[in-house]
Design brief:
Blueprint: E1 3-5, E2 8-10, H1 22-42, E3 45-49, E4 55-58, E5 71-73, H2 79-92, H3 97-143, E6 149-151, E7 157-159, H4 162-179
Length: about 180
């Protein structure tokens, strides 16, 4: 018999005396389904041809053959086979936007580093040419037999004697042979 409360009609049902409720039935069904899924997930199936040429499919490996040598179909595969497939899939799979962006930034960084390295090498080569040119001019001035002077500890000019001139010329020649190749 319906009960009217304001604008709603409320229907009452007698509580059943059945011990299985909807919640219990759902949990039971879920448990059975998961158990079945786990059992089949761990099963391994083997396929081979017997002596008469018929194809045999079984859950046990063929007699007289090691389980590793038999061809397993379905079931779980060895870990190394899974890793190989994952590597193949990774190589074949298209790259995501984040991976493309990361690759692009990596290429940019490498290009920047290469440009900086080239610039440093060019600067070092230019410095080396300048030093060689100065050493050659210094040697030419020492060989010209013009009067030359050096500064002493007090900062006063001291005239070079021939012995000092020869030592400086030898030092300049040695620098040129070592650095100006």
């Amino acid at each position: 018999m319906p009960l009217i409360q304001g604008h709603k009609i409320v229907l009452y049902r007698k509580p059943s005396k059945s011990p299985i409720t909807m919640k219990t039935a759902l949990i039971f069904t879920l448990g059975i389904t998961l158990t079945t899924a786990f059992v089949t997930a761990h099963a391994q199936t083997y396929q081979w041809k017997d002596s008469s040429g018929r194809t045999v499919i079984s859950d046990t490996p063929p007699p007289g053959v090691a389980a590793k040598e038999a061809r397993a179909i379905g079931g779980r595969q060895p870990a190394f086979a899974k890793e190989e497939k994952q590597v193949e899939k990774a190589a074949e799979a298209p790259k995501s936007t984040a991976e493309k962006d990361l690759d692009f930034k990596k290429r940019q960084q490498e290009a920047r580093e290469k440009t900086e390295k080239d610039a440093k090498e060019q600067k070092a080569a230019a410095d080396k040419r300048d030093n060689c040119e100065r050493a050659r001019r210094n040697l030419a001035a020492l060989e010209a037999d013009q009067p030359m002077a050096t500064l002493d500890e007090k900062g006063e000019a001291q005239r070079m004697d021939s012995n000092q001139r020869n030592q400086e010329m030898e030092r300049a020649r040695q620098f040129i042979t070592e650095s100006c190749k």
